[in-house]
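Reproducibility note. Readers wishing to regenerate the assembly model reported in the main text can use the exact inputs given here. Chain order matters: entities are listed in the order in which they were concatenated for prediction.
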Amino acid sequence: MTELMDAVNAEQEVLDTKFMLRAYQLAQQAQCHDEIPVGAVVVANGQIIGEGFNQSIMLNDPSAHAEMIAIRQAGQTLQNYRMIDCTLYVTLEPCPMCAGLMIHGRIKRLVYAAKDAKTGAAGSLLDLVNHQGLNHQVDVCEGLMANECSALLSAFFKRRRAEKKAQKKAARK
Ligand SMILES: [Zn+2]
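Running the prediction on these inputs yields the following structure tokens for the assembly.
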């Protein structure tokens, strides 16, 4: 029985890695647009039904987070505002807005890579997705590809800080 469980878990991990890799690619796309590199995919029955990357600056829209875009697309694919039995894969722990959206959408499972100590709402700053006072809770799995996804974010912020410094220096001349 434990062998069977191990096999099932190993299979799940292979699938999770496959979808997290796609989320990582989407995060790289965000980076190409000078957006904070976060990517997300929504999966139902082993198929991607929605994907998105962070586009807040491009769209002048503070709600244009990767998860928001992926979930909106999933709703269109499903033609349903409920995402029962869906899994959301995202490269960074969701913020309170996106965690709230997951609850509205009844997302079953969340797999996220890097923790966000400042705004994470899936266990770091808050635990909205597992708040017992709310009418829906999400199964959470964290840490998959955390090193890769947080390296992408740190490199982005490092580059942005260097650019800002260079701009300030240029302005002083
Ligand atoms: Zn968010």
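We highlight two features of this model. The mean pLDDT is 96. Residues 52 and 126 are 24 Å apart (CA to CA).
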